[in-house]
Amino acid sequence: MSATGKIKAPRLSLINITAVGFNNSMRWMYTGGEDNSARIWDLRSRNLQCQRIFQVNTPVSCVCLHPNQVELFVGDQSGTIHLWDLRTDHNEQLLPERNMMIQSVDVNGIGTMLGALTHKGMFYTWTLKSVFNKPSRIYPKMKLEAHKTYALKCKFSPNSEFVVTTSADQTAKMWKSSDLNEVVTFTKPGQQWVWDCAFTSDSEFLFTCSSDSVVRLWRCDDGAPIHEYAGHQRAVTTIAFQDGRPKQDAEITAACNSPPPTTDIAVVVDDDVKS
């Protein structure tokens, strides 16, 4: 990390980064990119070092870390989900359906369910069973047409009771994770593509970001909009949220689609954003 808090990435890695995340101890970071790889980066050294590389055959579209901190789920544009066991480098593959790109993957907070969303709006879930010192066992559970148009993101609530999917159809939809029955739809005229979402830690509120340059806060029980955060000039495509300490305001950060004028960044979001 530099003094400004930015990660100095190697200049030779000038490829589109499609996923980024950190382990609980903040000792390492994982990324996925259009160079057909997922990577582990050591954050303990002053200069960012790539420790390990997991290579696939097509561009990586999404990556998610299991709560056990030792398994990564890697989705790619061929429609394959790879389970990468960081302890042994063992990997397994899931192919929900052919000719569908895996757009987003997520694991619920207790590590018992995997969800995956394809670009065609199909949402799949699997039951995860933990086995001591072995990769999680994966069992197909349910399949749902969550959206009829291009889908973008899936995210489980912190209490694991719900999952939200977002889409180009101008909606985010919340489903019960147990049976995938629809609970509520978050939508507002003119909000355009809904790119990303983030729950509050109590699972009672949801943030969304969309192509109309606005971040919105919604109430989860009835889908009512609470507040709008405006100010970006272009589509807001990524959002990260962290609850503040008790009696303090929550903090919200959103990244718009224009990358900063420097290569000292951890995430590059394409400038060519659809609406």
UniProtKB/TrEMBL annotation:
State a GO cellular component annotated for this protein.
cytoplasm
Highest taxon of source: Eukaryota
Start and stop residues of the WD repeats:
17-51, 144-185, 198-228
Location in or out of the cell: Cytoplasm
Q: Name one Pfam family in it.
A: WD40
- Alphabetically list the UniProt keywords: Cytoplasm, Repeat, WD repeat
GO BP terms: regulation of actin cytoskeleton organization; TOR signaling
Where is this chain primarily localised? Answer: cytoplasm
Its subunit composition reads:
Part of TORC1 complex. Part of the TORC2 complex.
Entry's family note: Belongs to the WD repeat LST8 family.
What's this protein's function? Subunit of TORC1 and TORC2, which regulate cell growth and survival in response to nutrient and hormonal signals.
Any idea what this protein is called? Answer: Target of rapamycin complex subunit lst8
Q: Which organism is it from?
A: Trichinella pseudospiralis (Parasitic roundworm)
